[in-house]
Structure to design on (408 residues):
């Protein structure tokens, strides 16, 4: 009866992937953790450093030095690009296939046909070539205007007219026939179809969609499901554990983007609030997975604000010892990331970086788990930890924590 905890510091990479010059040249030179330390040399994060952060970066900087007794490693991204959704699917044990980048109007015919076949009433709205679909006169299907163009389609609905189960069914109908990275299906209360249509915008003369914040769906009773391309949640760690009757708690953004039939979902953004929920679950759960995403690091990266990023890291640093006290005996806690988001690199998008693996296990030290080929190795390690079948992808490094070779 043991706990396996994972804390994902969203967008906290430790160096550009080797393929960056070919696939994302704007990310050359990115190293989120190191560049924050360079820019904010007085940042106070001794607990992260004790767990091996500087070891994972690979370069000491002033008083920020290697930890001699840390358990640590790094992990490479196997998914295309640098995406939080795909990163979390990869951590859970999926090998995400290459998605397409495609304006919605290039697939509107196929989507319209499929949605009609699945029993929905559909009409088009807008000028030819720049149309969206209006479904059951209470939902729209269109481009996502907040993500990279052509990467995501949104289903935007009013919960006053369509249940979340029906919104999810509509999203799954769209998902059947499109190959973009994500279909996001969501809705809120106290909004009308007119509110949604009034938030329609066109970008770059070929992407047309609904501005989700402007539509008002976030304001009351917001519900969302993310449907990824080639993602089968049944072969992921969370779903596997749930099938075996093992508790799974999903905290922060993880509650929105990791699927699985668990009532232990705690959405939110404020880092202190999320740490409180993480500790609540660590107290309640004697045998299970406690998985949390800290999103405020990523938001600071998008804002290109090193000072705020450093402040969030200091909050994380302060809360870690509180968490560690609930991980005793055979319990394992891993602090990691899903990609980079370097606020110093000169753009506001994610950066394609390897991530740290900082591992806490009571009375265990000097363990190096290597440079892992995929984030999925964390999911595979969790599966071996609980003695269940392996997820779709990944190689466990549990033996390197519980046995392995000391590097003292």
């Amino acid at each position: 009866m043991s706990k396996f905890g994972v804390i994902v510091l969203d967008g906290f990479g430790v160096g550009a992937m080797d393929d960056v010059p070919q696939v994302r040249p704007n990310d050359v030179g990115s190293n989120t953790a190191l560049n924050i330390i360079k820019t904010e040399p007085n940042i106070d994060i001794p607990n992260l450093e004790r767990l091996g952060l500087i070891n994972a970066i690979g370069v000491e900087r002033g008083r920020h030095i290697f930890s001699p007794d840390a358990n640590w490693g790094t992990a490479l991204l196997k998914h295309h690009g640098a995406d939080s959704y795909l990163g979390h699917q990869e951590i859970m044990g999926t090998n995400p296939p290459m998605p397409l980048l495609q304006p919605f109007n290039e697939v509107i015919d196929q989507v319209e046909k499929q949605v009609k076949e699945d029993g929905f009433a559909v009409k088009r709205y807008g000028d030819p070539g720049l149309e969206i679909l209006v479904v059951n006169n209470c939902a729209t299907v269109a481009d996502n205007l907040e993500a990279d163009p052509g990467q995501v389609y949104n289903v935007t609905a009013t919960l006053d007219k369509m249940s979340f189960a029906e919104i999810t069914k509509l999203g799954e109908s769209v998902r059947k026939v499109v190959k973009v990275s994500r279909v996001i299906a969501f809705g809120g209360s106290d909004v009308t179809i007119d509110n949604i249509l009034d938030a329609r915008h066109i970008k770059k003369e070929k992407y047309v969609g609904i501005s989700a914040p402007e539509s008002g769906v976030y304001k009351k009773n917001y519900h969302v499901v993310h449907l990824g391309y080639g993602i089968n949640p049944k072969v992921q760690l969370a779903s596997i554990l749930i099938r075996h009757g093992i508790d799974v708690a999903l905290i922060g953004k993880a509650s929105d983007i990791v699927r699985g039939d668990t009532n232990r979902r705690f959405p939110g953004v404020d880092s202190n609030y999320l740490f409180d929920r993480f500790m609540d679950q660590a107290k309640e759960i004697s045998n299970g997975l406690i998985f949390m995403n800290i999103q405020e690091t990523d938001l600071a990266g998008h804002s290109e604000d090193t000072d705020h990023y450093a402040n969030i890291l200091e909050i994380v640093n302060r809360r870690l010892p509180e968490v560690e006290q609930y991980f005793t005996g055979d319990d394992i806690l891993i602090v990691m990331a899903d990609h980079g988001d370097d606020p110093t690199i000169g753009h506001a998008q994610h950066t394609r970086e390897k991530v740290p693996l900082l591992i806490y296990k009571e009375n265990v030290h000097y363990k190096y788990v290597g440079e892992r080929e995929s984030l999925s190795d964390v999911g595979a390690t969790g599966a071996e930890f609980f003695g269940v079948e392996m997820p779709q992808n990944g190689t466990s490094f549990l033996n390197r924590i519980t046995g392995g070779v000391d590097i003292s």
Summary: The chain has 16 helices and 16 strands. The chain has a mean pLDDT of 95. The longest helix spans residues 306-324. The two ends are 30 Å apart (CA to CA).
